[in-house]
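REVIEWER CHECKLIST
Item 1: Sequence provided? yes
Item 2: Single chain? yes
Item 3: Sequence as submitted:
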Amino acid sequence: MLRGAIARLQTQANSGYIVRPFMGAGEIRFDSRDLLDTSFGELHVGQTVEFDLQRGAGGLRAVQVRTVDE
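Item 4: Structure as written out by the authors:
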């Protein structure tokens, strides 16, 4: 699993973006259906998450996103 932080949330679309610090990569999109053990409403910007990457027709997407207790 990769680790990153919530960069921004789009509440109307129930989706958001994760940024991976120190990796030089752009933001990676996720959808509320990709969350494990948490609801979209519980997320906040800056929160640390773990996730897997999935490549699709639209590019990379974060899947199996779960929050990390720090």
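Item 5: Key structural point noted by reviewer: The mean pLDDT is 91.
Item 6: Recommendation: ____
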